[in-house]
Design a protein that fits this description.
With 164 residues, the protein is of the alpha+beta class. It has one domain: 2-Layer Sandwich (60s Ribosomal Protein L30, Chain: A), CATH 3.30.1330. Helices cover 22% and strands 50% of the residues. It is built from two helices and eight strands. Strands 1, 2, 3, 4, 5 and 6 form a six-stranded antiparallel β-sheet that branches. A two-stranded antiparallel ribbon has the order 7-8. A hairpin with a 4-residue loop joins β7 and β8. The longest helix is centred in the last third of the chain and has 25 residues. It is flat, with a radius of gyration of 21 Å. Keywords: Membrane, Transmembrane, Transmembrane helix. It holds the Pfam family PCC. This is PPC domain-containing protein. InterPro entries: PPC_dom.
Length: 164
């Protein structure tokens, strides 16, 4: 898991893509995000091969109510919900937003896989492709066994330590 805080004026999607790239995250996801934005651009839920994307940009302050998605080296697929000062919400496919006060984002990674975004002629969009890496499970199992042995050794030392 990784955590980052974006500051006023920073663009969320651009910052998230840069963060994942700089940390070489191959299969990342947004676990949670809280904060506020001063503008947001979303693609609404009517897009398909036959209808163009309806894109809305709102230039006003919103609280981030929900923000989720996947991030690959090819780009991100993000959705968000944003509440205004009256509690009215707008949501959809997230394209961009500018931080108002803060955006606190927790990013997780999926072990042993890479995410790619590949064009799908049926949908007309770049869609998620999950590439599984063989052989890494064995390394992970060895690492977990090694960690368990270290913890066991520490517990034995603590249990057999003479009181002062």
């Amino acid at each position: 898991m990784y955590a980052l805080r974006l500051r006023p004026g920073e663009e969320i999607k651009e910052s998230l893509d840069e963060f994942c790239g700089a940390n070489r995250l191959k299969a990342a996801y947004v676990a949670t995000c809280v904060g506020s934005v001063s503008s947001v651009t979303l693609r609404l839920a009517n897009a398909d091969l036959d209808r163009p994307n309806e894109i809305v940009t709102e230039e006003r302050r919103f609280e981030i109510v929900s923000f989720v998605g996947t991030v690959s080296p090819d780009g991100a697929h993000l959705h968000g919900t944003f509440a205004d000062a009256k509690g009215q919400c707008i949501g959809g496919h997230f394209l961009s937003a500018t931080v108002f006060t803060t955006a606190e984002i927790v990013v997780g990674t999926v072990p042993d896989v890479s995410f790619r975004r590949v064009y799908d002629a049926n949908t007309g969009f770049d869609e998620l492709t999950v590439l599984r890496h063989k052989g890494r499970r064995r390394h992970r199992a060895c690492a977990m066994v090694g960690t368990a042995l270290v913890l066991l050794g520490t517990a034995v030392l603590v249990a057999t330590r003479k009181p002062r």
